[in-house]
Amino acid sequence: MIDYQEIIEQLDDEKVKQLLDSFNIPFEDKGNFLILPTICHNQDVDSASMKLYYYKNTHIFQCYTECGAMSIFTFLKNYYETRDIEYNWYDDILQVILNCSAANTAVKTTEGYKSIRDNYTIKKDRRQLPTYPESLLDIFIKYYPIEWLNDGISRKAMDKYHICFSPT
What we know:
This protein is an alpha+beta fold. The chain contains six helices and five strands, in the order ααβββββαααα. It has two domains: 108 residues, Alpha-Beta Complex (DNA Primase, Chain A); 35 residues, no CATH class. Helix content is 30%, strand content 10%. The longest helix has 12 residues. It is elongated.
């Protein structure tokens, strides 16, 4: 079993910097954190803003424009997918992160992850749902049942979300 949290907690900051260098990702070391361009969702490093932070104490990447907080696993996944780079989760993400971590884990010697996604097919034949005339909604009236009000559904909420009542 893989303990992802242990791997993340034992990331070596110098190895994370080496990883960023190997991907040609520029960064500024500010002591407690690194500042990077927002390459998590931008393909071009030059057009990306410097609003991606890597916090050394929590080992979290924080994108302050779009992606939010990410583990190093999510960061690498976003990096590959943004660039339409095919990747193998085991070889291109897990093994790369294990090389940056001091975590002792038996995962290094296990076989690669084998996806079962190809075993399933997506049904392309979607049936068309029937459409009904809007006049069918005319049976509903604007009524505020006391039970609904007692359950905390306010009149204002019923009006805002067009919650109506059917007396039949």
